[in-house]
C-alpha cells in the first residue's frame, strides 16, 4: 500500500483540511477565551473588585488624600506593629524551613510503611482546623498547662512561667500550623530529582555532605522558594493564632485591622492598613521570584 500520501507526525501545516478539523484550528483563540471567561468573571468579582474598592476607600471619601497613610507613618505604634508582623513572618518562615526540610527529605526518600507514617504526620495536622490547633497550644502553654507543670515538677523552675500571650508563643504556634506548607513543596522538588545524579556524584568521589550541598540542595531550591513564599504570605496575614495565643500584647497587622473594623469602626484607616499589607506581600513575592531566577541563573552557569 502506498503510504506516501499519508500525513507525517507534526505536519498538519501541510494539510489544511486536517488542521481545520482540529478544535484549535476550527475555533482558534475564541474558544480559549470562552472557556476562560467564567474564571475571569469569578476572579474579577471575587478579587479585583474588592481590592479596588479597598484601595479607593483607603484614600477616604470625605477628604480624599493620603491622610490615613500619613497617620500610619507618623504613629510609632502602627509602624511597630508592621515591623513586628514582618519580623514574625520572617522568623516563622526560617523556622519552618529549618525544621521542615529534614522532614521533607525523609518523606521524599522513605518507602513503604515509613513513607505512610511520615505523610500522615504531615497531613493530619494540615487537615485539622487552625482554631483547634491554636486552642491546643493554649492548653499546653498556659500557667496550669502541661509545659509549666513539667517544669515545676522537675524542679527546673520554682513557679510557672509566662509562656502564653508572648511573641514566642505566637511564633511557635504559627510555625506548627504553617510547617506543612513548607514540607509539601520541598518534598515534591526533592522527589523530582533523579537519583542517578546523587549516585554519579558519589561515584566521582563526593561524600554525602558534598552531594547534598552541590546536587540535592540546589535542585530543590524551587520547592524551597515556593514553600517560603507560601509560609511568609500566610504568616504575614495570620489572624486566628496571633489573636488567641498572642493576645493584645503581641498584636499583628491582621489583629490591628480587625480591631479597626469591628471595634473602632474606622474603615478608611483599616483599608489603608490592608493596602500597606498588600503592598508588602506583593513586594515579597517579587523579591522571592527574582531570587529564584537569579539562583537558577547562577546554577546554570556553574
From TrEMBL:
<dbReference type="InterPro" id="IPR000515">
    <property type="entry name" value="MetI-like"/>
</dbReference>
<keyword id="KW-0472">Membrane</keyword>
<keyword id="KW-1003">Cell membrane</keyword>
<feature type="transmembrane region" description="Helical">
    <location>
        <begin position="269"/>
        <end position="288"/>
    </location>
</feature>
<comment type="similarity">
    <text>Belongs to the binding-protein-dependent transport system permease family. CysTW subfamily.</text>
</comment>
<feature type="transmembrane region" description="Helical">
    <location>
        <begin position="115"/>
        <end position="138"/>
    </location>
</feature>
<dbReference type="GO" id="GO:0055085">
    <property type="term" value="P:transmembrane transport"/>
</dbReference>
<feature type="transmembrane region" description="Helical">
    <location>
        <begin position="169"/>
        <end position="190"/>
    </location>
</feature>
<feature type="transmembrane region" description="Helical">
    <location>
        <begin position="86"/>
        <end position="108"/>
    </location>
</feature>
<keyword id="KW-1133">Transmembrane helix</keyword>
<keyword id="KW-0812">Transmembrane</keyword>
<protein>
    <submittedName>
        <fullName>Mannopine transport system permease protein</fullName>
    </submittedName>
</protein>
<feature type="domain" description="ABC transmembrane type-1">
    <location>
        <begin position="82"/>
        <end position="288"/>
    </location>
</feature>
<dbReference type="InterPro" id="IPR035906">
    <property type="entry name" value="MetI-like_sf"/>
</dbReference>
<dbReference type="GO" id="GO:0005886">
    <property type="term" value="C:plasma membrane"/>
</dbReference>
<feature type="transmembrane region" description="Helical">
    <location>
        <begin position="31"/>
        <end position="51"/>
    </location>
</feature>
<keyword id="KW-0813">Transport</keyword>
<feature type="transmembrane region" description="Helical">
    <location>
        <begin position="211"/>
        <end position="240"/>
    </location>
</feature>
<dbReference type="Pfam" id="PF00528">
    <property type="entry name" value="BPD_transp_1"/>
</dbReference>
Amino acid at each position: 500500500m502506498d503510504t506516501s500520501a499519508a500525513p507525517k507526525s507534526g505536519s498538519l501545516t501541510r494539510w489544511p483540511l486536517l488542521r481545520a478539523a482540529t478544535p484549535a484550528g476550527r475555533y482558534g483563540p475564541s474558544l480559549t477565551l470562552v472557556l476562560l471567561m467564567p474564571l475571569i468573571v469569578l476572579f474579577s468579582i471575587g478579587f479585583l473588585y474588592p481590592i479596588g474598592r479597598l484601595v479607593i476607600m483607603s484614600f477616604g471619601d470625605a477628604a480624599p488624600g493620603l491622610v490615613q497613610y500619613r497617620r500610619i507613618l507618623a504613629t510609632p505604634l502602627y509602624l511597630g506593629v508592621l515591623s513586628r508582623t514582618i519580623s514574625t513572618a520572617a522568623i516563622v518562615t526560617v523556622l519552618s524551613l529549618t525544621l521542615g526540610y529534614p522532614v521533607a527529605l525523609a518523606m521524599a526518600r522513605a518507602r513503604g510503611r515509613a513513607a505512610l507514617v511520615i505523610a500522615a504526620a504531615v497531613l493530619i495536622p494540615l487537615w485539622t482546623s487552625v482554631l483547634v490547633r491554636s486552642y491546643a497550644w493554649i492548653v499546653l502553654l498556659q500557667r496550669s498547662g502541661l509545659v509549666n507543670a513539667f517544669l515545676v515538677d522537675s524542679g527546673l523552675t520554682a513557679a510557672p512561667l509566662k509562656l502564653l500571650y508572648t511573641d514566642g508563643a505566637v511564633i511557635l504556634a504559627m510555625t506548627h500550623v504553617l510547617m506543612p506548607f513548607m514540607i509539601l513543596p520541598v518534598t515534591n522538588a526533592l522527589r523530582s530529582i533523579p537519583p542517578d545524579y546523587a549516585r554519579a556524584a558519589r561515584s566521582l568521589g563526593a561524600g554525602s555532605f558534598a552531594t547534598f550541598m552541590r546536587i540535592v540542595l540546589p535542585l530543590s531550591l524551587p520547592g524551597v522558594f515556593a514553600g517560603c513564599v507560601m509560609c511568609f504570605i500566610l504568616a504575614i496575614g495570620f489572624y486566628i493564632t496571633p489573636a488567641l495565643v498572642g493576645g493584645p500584647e503581641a498584636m499583628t497587622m491582621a489583629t490591628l485591622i480587625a480591631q479597626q473594623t469591628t471595634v473602632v469602626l474606622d474603615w478608611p484607616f483599616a483599608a489603608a492598613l490592608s493596602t500597606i499589607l498588600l503592598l508588602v506581600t506583593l513586594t515579597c513575592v517579587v523579591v522571592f521570584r527574582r531570587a529564584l531566577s537569579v539562583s537558577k541563573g547562577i546554577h546554570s552557569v556553574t
